[in-house]
Amino acid sequence: MRLPCTRVATWNVNSIKARSPVVARWLEAEGADLLLIQETKCSDEAFPRAEFEKLGYRVETVGQKSYNGVAILSRVPLAVEHRGLPDDPEDKDARYIEAVVELPAEGKRRRRRALRVASLYLPNGNPAGSEAFLYKINWMKRLIGHARQLLKETEPLVLGGDFNVAPGDADVYDPALFGNDALCRPETRARFRELLALGFTDAISARHPAPGNYTFWDYQDRAWPKNHGWRIDHLLLSHRALPLLADCGIDRKPRGAPKPSDHVPVWCDLRL
Questions:
Q1: How far is C-alpha 25 from the chain's CA centre?
Q2: Any idea what the Cα angle at residue 78 is, between residues 76 and 84, rounded to 5°?
Q3: Predicted TM-score (pTM) above 0.85
Q4: 6-12 and 34-38: which strand pairing?
Q5: What is the pLDDT of residue 141?
Q6: 98, 122, 162, 252: which could join 82 in a potential S-S bond, CB 3.0 to 4.6 Å?
């Protein structure tokens, strides 16, 4: 039985125009209050917002034609504060959107509640040692710097998205094979640990520490039926959000549906 909580989910949809029926069906079935989306792969103008607005969601996007792209779908009012990491206005990749969400008050004397959320799509970075890898590491350093400032705010904070980081060997089906992959490199994992050390908790790792909790299966080499997966999509809760955590999980069902994304939703329920 679902608790009376606010459900926050993250999902790399791998093209929102191709996947909008799948996403809409999932929202109707699961009723997430907030959905953080990555890899929309379309401009802001091309985002199929009407399909989600008719389901009662407000839609905020940072788009880019054919590549990257992030969005927030919310059932409640939200105010976007950043469309991109604020420290580098020259970075044109659509990888970050941050908003404060206003939740309705409960009871006669309670004030309105607020939750800060960010949807992010961290660079892949392959091959290791390339300029793409350097961009990944520098992007993570910028995220750490911004997150440090965000933790000074009073609202509970959720950083959600496709981090393109497998935090440990248990988060990839064959750690020996992929030890030099940019998603598993020691430099990548060190930056992820540095982010956590600021005061964030990986919700899935905290509640479901067993290995094999994958969120991504490649389209190639029959990765899905073989369960050759990776855990690279994360919900990171600030020290103010962690005490509110009621439950969390990974919904594998959409990966087995027709025309799926290669990622699945990760969700958490917060008692706000």
A1: 19
A2: 140
A3: yes
A4: parallel
A5: 97
A6: 98
